[in-house]
């Protein structure tokens, strides 16, 4: 897939009447329809169980909708050739709730992994990664492996890994859930810096204090529907 397929003014994400159900149960998401323009920044909010993680999973291609259409970077994912999926995913940075760090790798090597996958090599990679880890307060933990890190430290490593290659789209599922308020503010500021460089950002969070402080538009999930609320 050529890079120019992703460049242009198409919405980064578009949902058309999307519904999702698990098994024979009721729909978790129902007739969801919205589009997100390039360079936008949204909080994704809602009570537990309203479908925030499901919505994110649809966007980063971890699942397909039961009905309706999902478009990413102008492409209908239901018709996307299997061979093109990895190229699409490389445009998306994801911060998972369970971190998904590789236990045998150091903090530096975990964060450098997306760069290695696309062929980056040399000391410049390590320097770039080390600078980012210092920025998130882990300058003294560069060689530490995940098992020796606290939950909050692991979360910051996962965030650094998600943003290291400046993705076109960043999805973060409760990225401040295991850190104190000061670090939480700093992490949102990191996402803001990335957003200023053109990355579209979606942050799922229960932290109403951060939502009130930063005043970005909200995508509120309720009863399977998405409601947009101005910041």
Give a quick set of tags describing it.
231 residues, alpha/beta, six-stranded mixed β-sheet, four-stranded antiparallel β-sheet, globular
In brief:
It contains seven helices and ten strands. It is of the alpha/beta class and 231 residues long.
List the helices and strands and how they pair.
Elements: E1 13-21, E2 27-36, E3 41-45, H1 52-59, E4 67-72, E5 75-76, H2 85-89, E6 92-95, H3 107-117, H4 123-135, H5 151-163, E7 169-173, H6 181-196, E8 200-204, H7 208-214, E9 218-222, E10 225-229
Parallel strand pairs: 3-8, 3-9, 6-7, 7-8
Antiparallel strand pairs: 1-2, 1-4, 4-5, 9-10
Helix pairs in contact: 3-4, 3-5
Strand content: 15-25%
Radius of gyration: 18 Å
Number of helices: 7
- The order of strands across the largest sheet is 6-7-8-3-9-10
Query: What low-confidence regions span 5 or more consecutive residues with pLDDT below 50?
Result: 1-7
Calculate the mean pLDDT score and round it: 90
For the biggest sheet, the summary is:
6 strands, mixed
Q: How does the helix and strand content classify structurally?
A: alpha/beta
Distance between the termini: 36 Å
| Share of residues in helices | 25-40%
Number of strands: 10
């Amino acid at each position: 897939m050529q890079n120019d397929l992703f460049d242009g003014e198409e919405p980064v994400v578009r949902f058309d009447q999307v519904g999702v159900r698990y098994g024979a149960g009721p729909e978790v998401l129902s007739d969801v329809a919205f589009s997100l323009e390039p360079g936008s920044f949204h909080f994704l909010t809602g009570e537990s169980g309203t479908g925030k993680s499901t919505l994110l999973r649809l966007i980063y291609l971890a699942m397909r909708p039961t009905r309706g259409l999902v478009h990413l970077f102008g492409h209908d994912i239901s018709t996307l050739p299997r061979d093109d999926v990895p190229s699409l995913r490389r445009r998306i940075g994801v911060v998972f709730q369970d971190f998904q760090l590789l236990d045998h790798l150091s903090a530096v090597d975990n964060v450098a992994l997306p760069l290695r996958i696309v062929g980056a090599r040399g000391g410049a990679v390590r320097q770039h990664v080390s600078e980012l880890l210092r920025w998130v307060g882990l300058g003294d933990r560069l060689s530490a492996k995940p098992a020796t890190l606290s939950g909050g430290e692991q979360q910051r490593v996962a965030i650094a890994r998600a943003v290291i290659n400046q993705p076109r789209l960043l999805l973060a599922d409760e990225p401040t859930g295991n850190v104190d308020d000061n670090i939480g503010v700093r992490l949102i500021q990191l996402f803001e810096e990335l957003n200023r460089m053109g990355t579209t950002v979606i942050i799922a969070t229960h932290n109403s204090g951060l939502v009130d402080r930063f005043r970005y538009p909200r995508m509120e999930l309720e009863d399977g529907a998405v409601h947009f609320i101005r910041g």
